[in-house]
Please model this.
Amino acid sequence: MSWRVVHITNVEQMSLHLDSLKIKRGDEELKIPLADIFSVIIEDLTCKLTSRLMVELSKNNILVLICGQQHLPESQILPISGHFGQHKRMIQQLNWNEDQQAELWGKIIGQKIYNQARVMERNQIEQQRVNRMYNLISEIQPWDQENCEAQAARLYFNSFWEGEFSRNDPDKIENAALNYGYAIFHAALGRTITAKGLLPGLGIFHKGERNPFNLASDLIEPLRPIVDAFVLDNPPEDYLTKEYRLQLINLLHARVMIDGKLQTVIRTIDIYLGSIIEYFDTGGKLEKLKIPNTHKMKLYEL
Model:
């Protein structure tokens, strides 16, 4: 299984050499086998890429992210066809049972709140607040009709930052760090969704008409606390330095519990998505679901 995350900065050219990515800077050259690469994150706006390389990256289901001047991902390149049974998968997805979708969304949100509560305990937040988070899980209904997710988010974020914390505040560098980490996870989900032959724009709960990755927006929820935990452990002092961005990218190698084992986030996403396909294929058997759990999370360290 591919695992390397290639971060491109201060590079002159990227091209294909046999079955490898060739990176050139001055007289220096580096070759990385395509079979090892999960994603390529390009932050150098002057870097040249050959069309032949882009075709091979797509054929190998390698996620390519192109970042803008603020270092946040602006463009995502994914293959048009990523799975041998893509048509069958798409038809199945279009016919996913609505009641099963409602139940699944409740399970996803319940696990997200549980993972947030574990991050709170990890940071020694007062037990009364943590207990309220756990109580909210028991109040979740199909489609989260009581909006327990929003209630938990308000309690969660205000437990770490003084005052009324807003995720929409552009002046908080913590938000820039969170957004960058979330964007990396969101893109990784989009890549795997496509590789498994699913329609990324057809979400379970998210229905954004201008969001081509509604399904990734659904499935990222239990994974967000991994990014939160890192940012809380390593508060950014400046706006997204290169070293800090690299650490956020390497959270793809953090380990979380899924199906009773500690797995990297890359592997976790694959297991997670496979279990959701199996859940619908078996008529909504909840025992088939495997959703990421931060109980014994291990953040990646350089």
Observations:
- Residues 98-122 form the longest helix (25 residues).
- The radius of gyration is 20 Å.
- The CA atoms of residues 43 and 71 lie 6 Å apart.
